[in-house]
Write a structure and sequence with these properties.
239 residues; 2 domains
């Protein structure tokens, strides 16, 4: 199923009227291409999610719940498109889960719309960063593999073997292209994923186990090594 078919099916399933296809597709193209400036301009034209309010169907009698349902549909399409364009699945699904959880705690339509705007912008920023990297095919595959397997035990030797390289050659190539050792890169991605989980409301006692850390104390120490604060301190900054 291509993205246009996915969009049409979601519209049918949720009972949405058909928004102008040109503007809808332009919005999603901006997200996938990392065009944050274009998204900002579209936001000024259509406050609250990148499409005209008149085009939104009524999925709930409760205005806030109605807005959340539209955010979920929008997030689903953006997640699918970004994965198709090269964003690692684990990254895309973590972002999606985080913003849907945030929307679920909102109590006003305006608050949900702000989350919707932030969701589109964050996906676009990640895509912009992803597209700015010029990795060789081997390193690109390794980066995607790491992002999709953060919950498992990962080692430089194991990844090199998985990619079909000798460890020393792979380690040198990976560091040259990413600017980090394989071990450091894995740690940074795990801490980024931990930040997303924490922001999404996952308990600290669960985060370390979900991301392959050996213990909670190991998780706290590595989190502080990367961010300069403990997971608990980071959670307080989100309040």
């Amino acid at each position: 199923m291509n993205d246009v078919e996915l969009h049409i099916n979601l519209v049918k399933e949720l009972g949405l009227p058909h928004p102008p296809q040109e503007e809808e597709q332009e919005f999603y193209r901006m997200v996938v291409n990392g065009d944050t400036d274009g998204i900002a301009r579209l936001r000024e034209k259509y406050p609250g999610g990148g499409s005209p309010e008149s085009e939104k169907g009524r999925l709930s009698q409760d205005p806030v719940r109605n807005e959340i349902y539209h955010l979920v549909a929008n997030c689903t399409i953006i997640t699918r498109k970004c994965i198709s364009a090269g964003m690692p699945q684990e990254d895309a699904f973590s972002l999606s889960d985080m913003f849907i959880r945030r929307a679920d705690t909102c109590r006003t339509v305006e608050a949900v719309q702000r989350v919707n705007d932030e969701m589109a912008e964050e996906f676009a920023k990640r895509m912009k960063k992803l597209r700015s990297r010029e990795y060789s095919p081997g390193v690109r595959r390794a980066v995607c593999y790491i992002s999709d397997n953060l919950h498992t035990k990962l080692t430089a030797e194991g990844i090199a073997k998985k990619m079909g390289y000798q460890r020393s050659y792979f380690a040198s190539m990976f560091r040259r292209e990413t600017g980090a050792t394989v071990t450091r890169y894995i740690l940074e991605r795990r801490v980024e994923a931990a930040q997303s989980l924490i922001a999404g409301g996952v308990e600290l006692s669960e985060v370390w186990a979900l991301l392959g850390f050996s213990s909670q104390s190991h998780f706290c120490s590595r989190f502080r090594q990367i961010t300069g604060m403990t997971p608990g301190e980071y959670r307080l900054t989100l309040i």
